[in-house]
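Something for you to look into today, if you have time. I want to see for myself how the chain folds. Leave the record below and I will have a look.
***
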Amino acid sequence: MTQHRPPNRVAPRVSDGPARMRALAANLPTALREGFAEGLEIAPPARGASPIVAVGMGGSAIAADLARGVIDAETPATLTVVRSPELPRGLDSRAHVILVSYSGDTWETLYAFDAAGRVGAHRTVITSGGQLADRAAEEGVAVLSVPSGQPQRSAVGHLLGGILGLLDPWFPESNESRVARISDHLRNRIGVLARARGPAAALASRVGDRLPFVYAESSFIALARRWKTQVEENAKRLAIFDEVPELFHNAIVGWDAIRRAEAARCAAVLLEWSEESPHIRQRLRYLERVLKARGARVVRVPLEPEDRLEALVYGISLGDHVSLFLADLRKVDPLPVEAITRLKDALATPTRGA
């Protein structure tokens, strides 16, 4: 199979962590557009109800989760995201398996690459290099190469765009012009999001030092997860995410019973899409009343674009900037993730499937 291996563009480096992370956040529109174009170039033909599986960990997996919210809502396909070396049982040569590892050295993804090969599944690799790129080259597997030299979490635009490009044949019509339009719109808004007195800074100020609970309706739950992980990695603090309406069958009990002093240390961040259903909107307003009655801070975040994909991409950019302003408030460098580095150094795990 012909390899699609464009020159590996190295993301520009900026001298200090906060400035570099903001430069990478500003690059999201370009990265999304480039990733989509490269994914579209090597996209396999749609094959009806064939299983589609994306394997990845951490920031690589979140890109697949984000894509799934759009794919499940707008196509007859079902995308399964696997955060494990073990593939779903029963996969065979009809399956399309997308192996996503920014570094190319994630042992779970390497293991799954071998497992997918043994069952004869169609494989596509998305990576910046490493062992995964080498193995794909050895076995004639198509590679979508993403820029190296940046934190994995900052590659979300290229990874998300690449997955959407690969799966574009499953949509009723191509998303090429749609992605271009969304990228252009976001590029015009990035400057506002980065302002010290802009909407992202204001949201960060409202959260303050409270524990953030990020909530969204089910099809945007990956966006809530992205906000949570960005707060953890960039601002170096814990966060929690959950989905509506599921939380009304469990978390609401905890909120109803929480002591006011404890609730006052929490902020519920409600990600609200303008096109969500009336019953979801009604439940969010009920939740807001419960939270306020208990003394929690409620931070409503409107995702205004009517286009689901545009709302998702705008939400990614907004959340990234909020997390960077939270890092400023905490006076921490958003760039390093030393705990993850220590973990990787401490664990020696086999990378070749048995």
User: Anything to note?
Assistant: The longest helix spans residues 308-330.
